[in-house]
Amino acid sequence: GQSLEQPSEVTAVEGAIVQINCTYQTSGFYGLSWYQQHDGGAPTFLSYNALDGLEETGRFSSFLSRSDSYGYLLLQELQMKDSASYFCALFSGNTGKLIFGQGTTLQVKP
Amino acid sequence: DVKVTQSSRYLVKRTGEKVFLECVQDMDHENMFWYRQDPGLGLRLIYFSYDVKMKEKGDIPEGYSVSREKKERFSLILESASTNQTSMYLCASSERARVYGYTFGSGTRLTVV
Predict the structure, then answer these.
(1) B52 and A CB contact within 8 Å
(2) Chain CA centroid to CA B53, Å
(3) Over the range B46-81, which residues count as b (16 or more CB within 10 Å of their CB) and which as e?
(4) Residues in contact with A28: Cβ distance below 8 Å, sequence separation at least 6, in sequence order
């Protein structure tokens, strides 16, 4: 089967950099996605890594290492509005579905 | 702005009732999904559909069924609601060429009493 592990909570201060890790077990997959969900809101797509390495989208970057079964989401210049839950998700292309991790709650403090 | 719309934000039903959760997307997406979200468990896939009248079981299909008669609409059916089906239900859609980038609806908070 497939499984993903993330830390349940991370706390950081405004303006800092924070890294949310995601380790996974799978027999095969196409890539790793990241989603953000504010309290009471819908998850929204942030990024996707099909290949090893770093993908940058503004203040957010996502990294994938297939050899280490590991990825992370990097948030720079943290803002209060970044307080949310962040989910990593494996994309299994042959089934077309995403398998989500349990999510990491990020709390940004002043 | 593209949208996935879920018919109800909050729903309270009695044990044993048949419950219908409706989801409509206006993006002409081929793929549609139903997840449930519970604290500490993340998002778990119930059913998904690649096309009209097609459906596939996800990881937790027991107690649920789905219907996709039109491309834009994907319905989740709880045949006989039970208290352990109290949860947040999220519908999502994606285009075939970009399956990893879901668009989610705002969710339906279902309480079964």
Answers:
(1) no
(2) 15
(3) bbbbbeeeebeebeeeeebebbbeebbebbbebeeb
(4) A92, A94
Q: Closest chain B residue to A30 measured between Cα atoms?
A: B100
* Cα separations in angstroms, B37 against A109, B27, B28, B43, B46: 26, 24, 25, 5, 10
B90 forms beta bridges with B35
Cβ separation A48–B31 shorter than 8 A:
no
Note whether A101 contacts B105, CB cutoff 8 Å: no
The chain A residue lying nearest B56, using CA atoms, is A95
**Which of B44, B48, B100 has its CB closest to that of A33?**
B100
A61-78 burial: b if 16+ Cβ within 10 Å, else e: bbbbeeeeeebbbebeeb
Q: Find the helix or strand (DSSP H, E) in which B76 lies.
A: strand B73-78
Residue in chain A closest to B45 (alpha carbons) equals A99
SS3 for B15? Answer: coil
**pLDDT (tens digit, 0 to 9) for every residue of chain A, 110 residues total?**
788 999 999 999 999 999 999 999 988 888 999 999 999 899 999 999 999 999 998 999 999 999 999 999 999 999 999 999 999 999 876 556 889 999 999 999 99
Q: Which of A49, A64, A88, A98 to mutate to test the interface with B (most CBs of B within 10 A)?
A: A98
Structure tokens belonging to residue B27: 């993006």
Give the residue among B58, B38, B107, B5 at the shortest CA–CA distance from A96. B58
Q: Which of A45, A99, A102 is nearest residue B41 as measured by Cβ atoms?
A: A102
